[in-house]
Backbone:
């Protein structure tokens, strides 16, 4: 499958909400929020900034990656 397929699926899924009124309380469309799809090794598959694709998430969002490590979402 092509990367564009995953990108489209991710952005479509990020706009779907389960709230009763159908509005998302938090959205990837918000310019103050950065949304990423990362793989199990911590590499970025989808980002709003296409130049970040393929980079290690910790290089882009180091503080967030450290928190994910503390939460045992990832291992060193």
Residues:
């Amino acid at each position: 499958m092509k990367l564009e397929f995953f990108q489209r699926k991710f952005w479509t899924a990020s706009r779907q909400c389960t709230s009763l009124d159908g509005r998302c309380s938090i959205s990837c469309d918000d310019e103050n929020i950065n949304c990423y799809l990362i793989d199990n090794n911590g590499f970025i598959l989808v980002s709003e900034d296409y130049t970040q694709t393929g980079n290690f998430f910790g290089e882009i969002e180091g503080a967030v990656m450290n928190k994910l490590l503390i939460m045992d979402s990832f291992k060193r």
User: Anything to note?
Assistant: The mean pLDDT is 87. Residues 3-14 form the longest helix (12 residues). Strands lie at 36-38, 44-47.
